[in-house]
Every structure is written in C-alpha cells, then in structure tokens.
C-alpha cells in the first residue's frame, strides 16, 4: 500500500486531488488525503467530476504497478453533505453510492457521538455467545468464569474508542445478570447479590467481574496520556488543529486546585504522600496552575519538580542554618 500512498501524494502535489482540510478557529489546521490500514482505505477528494476521474485513473495506475486488483464492487463513494450529482460521480468511478454513518475498521464512521445503534453489533455478539451456552449445564462458578473471561471482554474494542451510552451499559449488564442468576437460560430469577457488589474485587467481597462503567473510563483515559505523549500522531494533529490547545495540552476545569492539599495526583494529597518534602516548601498554599510549568522540560527534571525549586529554596536555607546552629551549640 506504500505505492498507493506515494501516488496519492504526488497527485495532490500536482493539484489533481484536494485533501480534506481539518481546521478550527485558529491555525492552519491539518490536511488529510487518505487513510490506509490493512485492507481498509479511505481517500478524500472534492465532489466534482474532474477529481473523481483523476482518482479513477490513479487506481488504474496502482493496479498496473502492483498487480493488485481494486474491488470496486465492495467500494463506496460517500458524499459529505448534499451532493447533487452523486450518482453520476459514482458511475464515473465504477462503484456504488454509500452514506453516513458507515463502517471503517469495525467502528461507526461519521456517526453522532452517542449513536446507540452503533452498539447493536455488540449486543448481537453477546446473545450469540449465550445461545452456545444456553443448553449446557454450567455451574455458577463456571458462569462467573465465562462472564469474566468472555462477556466482559466483548465490548472492549468499542469502549476503548467510544463512551458507552447508559442504556447500552444497563442492557449489557442485565444480560450478564440474567446469565449468572438464571442458570444460563436468561430467566429473570431473583438476584441474590447487588450487581455493584458482584463487580467488586474479590479482596473486597466481590466476584471480580469488570464494571463496564469503570472499564470504559479507564480505556478512554489512556487517550489523554497518548495525547500528551504522541505529539506526532495524525489523530493528535487533527485534534489540536481543530480544537486548539491550551497550556501545553494540560487543562484543569478549576484553576484554584491546591497543589499540596487537594487530591489531584493519585488517591491522597501530596502533603500526606511526601510529608518531608511538604515540610520544606514555603509557601504551602500553592495552586497547581502556579506550580506546574509545562514548558520546564519533558524529562525527569522537568514539569512539576522544575517549578518547585523557587518554593523550597528559602525554607531550605533557613533549615540548613538552623541545623548548623544546633551543631555549633553541641
């Protein structure tokens, strides 16, 4: 597919195809000409006959160079917005007309943020699994194992990209509850334990079943880390080009967050986690927005620690002088 990518770039440099320009309120934005992953390919161009004709020629050149065959029967021309002559353009390219939302790499493409219908495939996979187990005698321990190892992992791909709607989450949890307490037949039998208790860790009296709500939040939070770390990734550039960026990529809803006394890093305040360090700091009422320096560096010496120096140096000198006085007196 590298040959196809090179052809597309050369055609765009020649002005024969126009890429999709993602641009926000400020900045130049990002231009996207094509997306390639395995056998899934998206190519962007303007909705006019000249560009579609050039695209058709480009695909023929690619077939001649690589010896591969583009399956136009499985290809679609998807209009963005209203296009009057979309049927004519599809005929020129030799494919059918598609529409949004579509499917790309198993994910809904062009769907609204909370598009519930996109999760229908997940529910269908749940029920197909249960049909396989329905007529088998499975103990309660076996059902717990199947829920933890199979059912809880089925929607992970979707939950790593999308926020699961509340109705979908409750429906999937209901299927798991019915399977657990209904003997594998999905009967509505009395629940012996609250589902929140079932989802607790075994050390806390639960059964270790994954909570879809907590799992979804954990999977989505990883993108915050990747956003700060993978600056050169295309998706990162698209988000920054469309929505902008503030404070080096980190932002807090509340500017008045105490650096030492509020729980903002971990499960306990920093003053409790590092009491010796907190004793040296002056002043102790510092805010995160004042202490954090996103431009101080990106190594171990950068970030927060690079900004703590001015706060500690005065107290450190006084503490060192006090120790020296004590030694002299002894």
From TrEMBL:
Protein name: Putative ribonuclease H protein
Organism annotation: Vitis vinifera
């Amino acid at each position: 597919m590298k040959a196809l990518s090179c052809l597309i770039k050369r055609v765009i440099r020649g002005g024969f195809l126009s890429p999709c320009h993602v641009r926000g309120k400020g900045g130049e934005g990002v231009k996207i000409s094509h997306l390639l992953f395995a056998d899934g390919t998206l190519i962007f161009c303007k909705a006019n006959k000249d560009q579609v004709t050039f695209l058709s020629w480009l695909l023929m050149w690619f077939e001649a160079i690589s010896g591969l065959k583009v399956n136009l029967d499985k290809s679609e021309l998807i209009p963005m917005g209203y296009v009057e002559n979309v049927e004519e353009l599809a005929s020129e390219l030799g494919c059918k007309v598609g529409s949004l939302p579509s499917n790309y790499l198993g994910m809904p493409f062009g769907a609204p943020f909370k598009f519930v219908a996109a999760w229908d495939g997940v529910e269908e996979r749940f029920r197909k699994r249960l049909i396989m187990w329905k007529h088998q005698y499975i103990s309660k321990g076996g059902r717990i194992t199947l829920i933890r190892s199979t059912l809880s992992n089925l929607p992970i791909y979707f939950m790593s990209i999308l926020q699961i709607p509340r109705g979908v989450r409750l429906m999937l949890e209901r299927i798991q509850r019915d399977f657990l307490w209904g003997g594998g037949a999905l009967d509505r039998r009395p629940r012996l334990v609250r589902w929140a208790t079932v989802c607790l860790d075994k050390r806390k009296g639960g059964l270790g079943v994954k909570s879809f709500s907590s799992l979804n939040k954990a999977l989505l939070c990883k993108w915050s880390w990747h956003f700060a770390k993978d600056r050169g990734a295309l998706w990162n550039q698209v988000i920054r080009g469309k929505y902008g960026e503030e404070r080096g990529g980190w932002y807090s809803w509340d500017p008045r967050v105490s650096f030492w006394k509020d729980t903002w890093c971990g499960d306990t305040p920093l003053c409790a986690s590092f009491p010796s360090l907190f004793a040296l700091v002056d002043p102790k009422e510092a805010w995160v927005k004042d202490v954090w320096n996103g431009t101080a560096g990106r190594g171990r010496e950068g970030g927060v620690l690079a900004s703590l120096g001015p706060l500690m140096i005065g107290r450190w000198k006084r503490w060192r002088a006090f120790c020296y006085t004590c030694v002299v007196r002894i």
